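Before we proceed, please read the two lines closing this message. Report back on whether the structure tokens fit the sequence:
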Amino acid sequence: MTLTRPAGRLMRLPATPPAPVQHILAVAFLAADGRTWSAIGGGPTITAAIADARESCPADATWDPVGWNDLYGD
């Protein structure tokens, strides 16, 4: 397939807005009693992604992040 343009006319591609920054993390959590939990969270910042992952932790403890892996992010 060959594309041609009319003489004297510029062909312009439509502008595509950049994708928003997004971080998807696999986060490891630790509770004070030694229990561990793993969760996946996402957000525009690493802090937001960790907070999102923390929402899926059991509600009967305070969970501290002890590590994470970037699954997707800028």
Notes: The mean pLDDT is 89.
